[in-house]
Write a structure and sequence with these properties.
alpha+beta; 9 strands; three-stranded antiparallel beta sheet; Chitinase A, domain 3; 2 domains
Length: 244
């Protein structure tokens, strides 16, 4: 059955051409179709908003610049977060953790969203069955640590990238971080096996990095919400998009 997105067909040829960008996913065909559907929805929205779609990438970028609005975190918001999450801002702490690493995609927002869907699926599995974490790491992780069930050994603050560090040191020992963590290396599912306490950091020392983190989180949430709204409002025939 043909795949139709608001009256526009996604052909088999289009899917075949897109497949090469998703070879490292669990279901390359599904990932390719999902990216093409989201691309078509964004392109249609760009046309609806009067953008010149001769260059589709530029049109979609302009649309997202216009539509993805959020209030940047100011110093007051950063301080409120700092005070509400004291366990995240300690020095001298150490932890032992394991992770499952997934690639970000082919470099654009749409590809990243689709790559994230695979990681979300595995996250749901390990949350339901934490004992399967090591096996899932061996099967899915693109990090060399996957061969050891994802074990990264023991490390202290400052030894990992900020997003990964924040997730580890805000998760109690014996637990899996409740959400995926995105870093420059990809999407991480994190399991913390041990934690040692330390002293609290000074707000002035970390406020710039915290502000960047909060703004990145808000931007990603805005993107997720926008894509979800486009899918919900669309008439998509011949394919069922997964929950986002």
């Amino acid at each position: 059955m043909a795949i139709i997105v608001n009256g526009v067909e996604i052909t088999d040829a289009m899917v075949q051409a897109e497949l090469e960008n998703h070879e490292d996913t669990a279901s390359p065909r599904d990932s390719a179709i999902q990216q093409l559907v989201l691309h078509q929805l964004l392109l249609q929205k760009a046309q609806e908003n009067g953008f010149d779609t001769a260059n589709e990438g530029q049109a979609i970028g302009a649309l997202l610049d216009q539509e993805l609005q959020f209030v940047p975190a100011d110093e007051a918001a950063c301080l409120a977060y700092f005070n509400a999450n004291p366990e995240r801002f300690a020095k001298g702490e150490s932890a032992r953790a394991s992770h499952i690493l997934f690639p970000l995609g082919s470099g654009d927002e749409l590809s990243a969203t689709l790559a994230r869907a695979k990681a979300e699926g595995v996250l749901a599995q390990v949350q339901a069955n934490p004992a399967s974490f090591a096996d899932q790491a061996r099967e899915h992780s693109t990090c060399p640590s996957g061969k050891q069930g994802g074990d990264l050994g023991e490390f202290g603050r400052g030894q990992m990238v900020p997003e990964f560090e924040q997730a580890v040191f805000s998760t109690e020992a014996g637990n899996i971080a409740p959400a995926l963590v995105e870093t420059q290396f990809g999407y991480h599912i994190i399991q913390v096996s041990a934690r040692q306490a330390g002293d609290k950091l000074a707000f002035d020392d970390i406020k710039e990095r915290l502000q960047q983190y909060l703004n990145e989180m808000a931007g990603r949430q805005a993107m997720h919400d926008y894509l979800t709204s486009l899918v919900a409002a669309a008439k998509i025939e011949g394919y069922t998009m997964p929950s986002m």
